[in-house]
Amino acid sequence: MKFAVIVFPGSNCDRDMHYAVKDVLGAEAEFVWYEDECDLEKYDGILIPGGFSYGDYLRSGAIAATAEIMEQVKEQAEKGKPVLGVCNGFQILTEAGLLPGALMRNKDLSFICRNQRLVVENNETMFTSQYGKGQIVQFPIAHGEGNYFCDEDTLAELKRNNQIVFTYESNPNGSVENIAGIVNKEGNVLGMMPHPERAVDKWLGSEDGIRLFQSILENWRKTYVAN
Predict the structure, then answer these.
(1) Does 121 participate in catalysis according to the annotation?
(2) Extents of the domains making up the chain
(3) Which HAMAP family does this UniProt record tie to the protein (predicted)?
(4) CA atoms within 13 Å, Cβ hemisphere of 141
(5) pTM for the whole thing?
(6) Is-catalytic flag, 150?
(7) Which of 17, 79, 94 is nearest to 48 (CA)?
(8) Which residues are within 8 A (CB) of 194 and not within 5 positions of it... i.e. 6 or more apart?
(9) pLDDT tens-digit profile, the chain (227 residues)
C-alpha cells in the first residue's frame, strides 16, 4: 500500500505521519508538496497531517482547503480511497466540505498539548477495525482550535449514521458530545484532532495509534489485494 502525505506551508506533523506508515507500519509513503504536479491516482491512501497550514490565518485549514490538490483529494475520496486528516488535517477536511461541522477555538481559548484518553465509539470503519468497540486508547492532542461544533440536525445525522468514531473520555476543548473524530457517510474519510501517528512506539508513551494504520492496511488488502 502506498500513501501520499500532503504537505502544506506550515505543516509540521508530516514527518511523524511518514514515520508511522513507512517505518512502523512498513507501507510505502511519499511526501507530496501541495504545489507539485502530482497525480494522486497512483496512491492507495491519502494522509493530511497536522500543523498550522498557512499560519492558521483566516481560519485554521480554510486556505489549505482551497488549494488545487484538494480537488484531487476529493476525487480520490469519491472513489472510496481512505483519506485521513489529523488535527489541522481534520480542520482542512471540514473546510473543504469532505466532513461536516467545524473546529473552533478551545473553550478556554488556550493551546492544549498532552496525552488524552479516547473511547472507540465505532470499530466498524476501515480505520478502526483493529480496535474493540468501547476500547479506551491514548493519543496525544496538540491544538488550539479543536472544539468540534455542528448544528443539531448534523449531530443527529452523525449519530444516526454511526459517524462518530472517537470521543474524549474527558472533554478537553468543549467539543459537542465529546467528539474527537468522525467519518463521512461512506466511511472512507476520517478526521480527528488527536494524533495517532504520535502514538506508534512505546518510547512515545503509547502504541495505541499503530492499530489505526494497521486497520487501513488490513482493509485495503481485503478490498484490493484479495480481489
Answers:
(1) no
(2) 2-225
(3) PurQ (MF_00421)
(4) 27
(5) 0.96
(6) no
(7) 17
(8) 86, 87, 116, 118, 139, 140, 141, 166, 180, 181
(9) 999 999 999 999 999 999 999 999 999 999 999 988 889 999 999 999 999 999 988 899 999 999 999 999 999 999 999 999 999 999 999 999 999 999 999 999 999 999 999 999 999 999 999 999 999 999 999 999 999 999 999 999 999 999 999 999 999 999 999 999 999 999 999 999 999 999 999 888 899 999 999 999 999 988 877 65
- Active-site residue among 13, 145, 150, 195? 195
The whole-angstrom separation of Cα 76 and Cα 44 is: 9
Q: Which of 87, 121, 145, 150 is catalytic?
A: 87
Q: List the catalytic residue out of 95, 121, 145, 197.
A: 197
Strand order across the 83-86 sheet: 28-33, 2-7, 45-48, 83-86, 189-192, 179-183, 164-168, 112-120, 136-143
Active site residue 195: yes
